[in-house]
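REQUEST ID: PR-0412
SUBMITTED BY: lab tech R.K.
PRIORITY: routine
TASK: structure prediction, single protein chain
INPUT:
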Amino acid sequence: MYSLARTLLFALDPETAHDLSLRALAGAHAIGAAHLVHPQLTDDPVELMGLRFSNPVGLAAGLDKNGVFVEPLAALGFGFVEVGTVTPRPQAGNPRPRVFRLPQAQALINRLGFNNDGVSAMVARLRGARIIGPLGINLGKNADTPIERAIDDYALALQAVYPHAGYVAINISSPNTRDLRTLQGGPELEALLAQLARERSHLADRHGRRVPVAVKIAPDLADQDLIRMADALVAHGLDAVIATNTTVARDPVAGLPNGQQAGGLSGRPLFARSTQVVRTLARHLQGALPIIAVGGIFSGADAVEKLRAGASLVQLYTGLVYRGPNLIAECRRSIAAYRKTAAPAQCAAL
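STATUS: complete
OUTPUT:
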């Protein structure tokens, strides 16, 4: 069924197809028909960051930037949904066209630029949402905020979403906001993490609960930079690392139509590098910080490979564009089977 729908959707502009798909899903959910697109599966719970995930397969940020479709998306069978990236103030993002399909490579390139309605609009929507499972809220800075003031944007957004978030993700790795990736290293990273830790401590006292904070990183960092970043996250008491965002590398799609468009590349070409980042982090961290893996998952076997590399949870996005909702159930089944066989082996090794 989805292969036919994809043919029709791929005849449209990518952003038009994206909006149409979400509105169709919301309509199906409103009449109680959303269950028709996914099977009912047994829970496969994971306890992480002080939260309970009914299964390890989540939706990555970017699909629902404004928190409009949380309920219908969660009903597809995800164990958790991450919305955003949201910024303190509304912004239009970069000029269109800004999303490009590369079907020969099962990939997308986007340079959306954090287009969103702003954090106040998102919070107003989330107040009335019936949320199934932990809700992640992905935060960014406004494009016109000077990079030296980025900390202020993240603090403002964190204050606004704190009462409504299961966890918060700090996006300092999008390639589509000028200079944003400079926050991933050196004194800029240290200052940001220290401020976030202080702000979270104040908010935890005020609201009577500690909301976990994760940081989403780029796949284009050298291994030594990954290790330095991991150490900084642990030192400042962050709760997880999300690996990875999109890549600016173009070797895997060189020569393809739209292959040299500016922006972040996602999908199948990202799988190998994002998985290697997970593996590098896991070897260094040795369990000190959980890893949420995202990047190029197109099958249940891909999802399992992320867990083998050291991840605890996985997230989907571009794979859904090419495979449809069946990918969620496939990943859940494969992970559940893997975890059943892996657990006895781990116990035997103790």
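NOTES: The chain has eleven helices and 13 strands.
REVIEWED BY: pending
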